[in-house]
Amino acid sequence: MNIAGFNPNSFVDYPGNIAAVVFTAGCDMRCWYCHNRHITSSSCPLLDETEVLDKIRANKALLDGVVITGGEPTLQADLAEFIKKIRSEGLLVKLDTNGKHPEVLKPLLDAELIDYVAMDIKTPLKDYDLVTPTVESEEVFRDSIRLIISSGVNHEFRTTFFPQLTADDIGEIGKEIEGARAYFLQRYNNVEGFDFKPHGDTYFKLAAEKASRHVRTFVR
């Protein structure tokens, strides 16, 4: 698998668990506020998969699981095989995804290879062009949402509340994921080259309240 980064332990990336974090290379979105853009190209420097797995094994007594994030992990042709190697060590697996590939997500869920799924929802599904020029139809994302909610697997959806989004937008996203176990509204942090003013606390709270009419909403 194309691995662009590795964190041997994290207390924040897998709710309730200590986890190693594997960052895959390449992404089929180009979100302007991405903090991992250095690994979104498939030509970025790679780590050796065997060495990463060896580090996970050496540290597994201190770990509960492994988070596979990116980039976009569902672009990796051998994702399922990599997950099986992790699970063979008795570790949980959390997958982060942008939701563009329900055809990859479904067999992973059907085979019960994933213990937790986190899907980013960038904007209301009709407005993805606010974030990235590389989008699919609304139904692609909607299919992934349905798959995740109906899977029975622990999951969350999350949105970075960047300045161009409104509280009504967040409410609309909440409606799209009604029935989900959790929705996290994340604060926007500027990336290099941008100097936008994040939403203030009062407006942030208003947006969370609008989403909470449809889904359990938390803030980060």
- Biggest β-sheet: count, sense, barrel? 8 strands, mixed
Question: Considering DSSP H and I runs of 4 or more, what fraction of the residues is helical?
Answer: 25-40%
Distance between the termini: 31 Å
Low-confidence stretches: none
How many strand elements?
Answer: 8
**Secondary-structure element order, N to C:** EEHEHEHEHEHEHE
> CATH topology of one domain, anyone?
TIM Barrel
| CATH architecture annotation of one domain | Alpha-Beta Barrel
- Main CATH class of one domain: Alpha Beta
Class based on secondary structure composition and strand pairing = alpha/beta
What is the beta-strand fraction?
A: 15-25%
The number of helical segments is 6
Mean pLDDT: 95
Radius of gyration: 17 Å
User: Which homologous superfamily in CATH is the superfamily of one domain?
Assistant: Aldolase class I
Strand order of the largest sheet: 1-2-3-4-5-6-7-8
Shape call: globular
Describe this structure in words.
With 220 residues, the chain is an alpha/beta fold. Helix content is 29%, strand content 24%. The protein has an 8-stranded mixed sheet with strand order 1-2-3-4-5-6-7-8. Helix 3 (102-110) packs parallel to helix 4 and helix 5 runs parallel beside helix 6 (201-211).
Which helices and strands occur, and which strands form pairs?
Elements: E1 3-14, E2 17-24, H1 49-59, E3 65-69, H2 79-87, E4 92-97, H3 102-110, E5 116-120, H4 138-150, E6 154-161, H5 167-176, E7 183-187, H6 201-211, E8 217-219
Parallel strand pairs: 2-3, 3-4, 4-5, 5-6, 6-7, 7-8
Antiparallel strand pairs: 1-2
Helix pairs in contact: 3-4, 5-6
